[in-house]
Amino acid sequence: MVSLVVGKLDEISRAIGSLEASTTDLRVSFDKHCLDDDRRHGENISALHTLSDRLGKLTETIQASRFKLVGAAFVVTMLIGFVGWLIQPFITTLVSRMWH
Whole-model pTM? Predict the structure, then answer.
């Protein structure tokens, strides 16, 4: 009977030791996962800041391009109007001579 109890105690002791080892392995694995997760989070934050900066620069470039395009359209419109104003008397004279 004593040998059965001793055998059972040995079995329980081995099970507890095995659980402690498993718990230690699990804790180490979890700590590694947390460190990896923190590292990935830092990398993602850095990448997002980089993308945000690039997007800001791109937005500024597009805005500047739009201003240039609007300015060019204004200048072209003014030139067309000025050229039309200059040649209008000649066209008026030409048309009036053709009808008379």
Answer: 0.49
